[in-house]
Amino acid sequence: MHKKTELLLIGAGGHCRSCIDLISCIPDFDIAGVVDRDGSDLKEVMGHSIIGTDSKLEVLLEKFNQVHITVGQIKTPKIRINLFNRAKSYGAEFPVLVSPSAYLSQRAKINEGSVLMHLTIINSEAEVGKNCIINNKALIEHDSIIGSHCHISTGALINGGVVIEEGCFVGSGAIIHERVKIGGNSIIGAGQVVKTDIASNTVVK
After folding, report:
1. How far is CA 170 from the centre of its chain?
2. 48-53 and 44-45: which strand pairing?
3. Strand, coil or helix: what is 50?
4. Are residues 76 and 143 in the same domain?
5. What is the pLDDT, as a whole number, of residue 2?
6. CB-hemisphere CA count at 13 Å for 77?
7. How high does pLDDT run on average in the chain?
8. What is the largest CA-CA distance in the chain?
9. Average pLDDT value for residue range 10-27
10. 3-state secondary structure at position 60
């Protein structure tokens, strides 16, 4: 029988529930448990036990070193970045999670800790950085580069040759035109159409 990898989930909110649903579709993984924030009294998420809080992360990683960050990201990537870097410093490893319904080109590259949710498309020569969320029905076209710690939200369309730097959020249904560059830590609101380059730390809404 194929031995499954036990995966520790860090974060117990709404994005965690989406990830649990996704992981249930992937035969390679079982969920070891969920880590919640300090001070929470939550006991379980969708039947999976809360086995510790952030302050116990180092101890938990001595037993479970395969990790996925399941904190969501809209206004800021700081929490996801901090948890990723902290777990990494304790020796954690971050498998890539890919929905069976996603299309991932053999010529694309997805870096550690990123997740491709249901019905995403990652086309030829595209690259997705570390610890990214590529959410349901998002499209990353050919030759585009998504920096680490980005969230490309539901139904967003990233056209060919786009560069999105680290820490950005692109909202649901947004359209980024060909060869546009979006500077780091920017927020593109839901439904926005971006035709020109955007400076770092910009909010488009």
Report:
1. 12
2. antiparallel
3. strand
4. no
5. 66
6. 24
7. 96
8. 53
9. 96
10. helix
Tokens 């694309």 map to which residue? 108
| Calpha distance 191→56 (Å, rounded) | 40
Q: Is 31 helix (H, G, I), strand (E, B) or coil?
A: strand
β-strand 169-170 against 163-164: which pairing, if any?
A: unpaired
Find residue 157's DSSP bridge partners: 139, 175
Same domain, 116 and 66: no
Residue where a domain stops, chosen among 90, 115, 139: 90
Domain that holds residue 173: 96-204
**CA 140, CA 108: separation in Å to the nearest integer?**
10
Euclidean distance between the first and final Cα of the chain, in Å? Answer: 51
pLDDT of the residue at 1: 55
Compute the distance between CA of residue 129 and CA of residue 146 in angstroms, rounded to an integer.
6
What are the φ/ψ torsions at residue 14 (nearest 5 degrees)? -60, -40
Got the DSSP string for 182-194? E-TT-EE-TT-EE
Output the pTM of the full model.
0.96
Whether residue 199 is found in the same domain as residue 100: yes
Helix (H, G, I), strand (E, B) or coil at 28: coil
Which of 1-15, 33-47, 91-105, 138-152 is the least confident region? Answer: 1-15
Model confidence over 111-130: pLDDT tens digits?
999 999 999 999 999 999 99
pLDDT digits (tens, 9 = 90+) for 89-102: 999 999 999 999 99
Tokens 């974060």 belong to residue: 11
